[in-house]
Give the backbone structure.
Amino acid sequence: MVHATPIVFVVDDDVSVREALEALIRSEGFETETFASAEAFLARPRAFAPSCLVLDVTLPDLNGLDLQKRLADRSDMPIIFITGHGDVPMTVQAMKAGAVEFLTKPFGDEVLLSAIRQALERSHSSLDQEQELQLLRGRYAALSRREQDVMALVVVGRLNKQVGFELGISEITVKAHRGRVMRKMEAGSLADLINMAAKLRLAAVPQR
């Protein structure tokens, strides 16, 4: 899927570090924006583009690990931590919370750039999944209430006769609703429809 130009955000309270990282990241052809504090970064409107965050652990007021907690729901923006004095517990905490990498200064340029590439790939994937989910939600919302009822029963393995019995309609009517569900959801098979329902969390995928 097509996305806007990737952005690499940098949050570090040392101006010399920010400038050096900005120059390095731009030399690789990435867009970048730098911030001196977590608060300044949080004040920026959310970017709907592939992105990652290069984040210093030690920041004034709100530190890097606290900022990571604030961004816990932002799977589309992976975090790469940098620090001048990391320790094992700090590293474990950051990585358990989903950080891509935890780099201790000084680190090589390629080490950081490699982590950025990995983070942006993860961001692309997350945005693709979110876009797919939005499309599915739109298709599901276009179903009539009866079609939604039929879909809910079909994806948990009910036969047409059973669906008709539970909904109080004829088997022929069930088949008609089922056909419309398949077309509107753009499902090529029952397996496709089951996968869509699972992504929409409408029903658990039946155990085989």
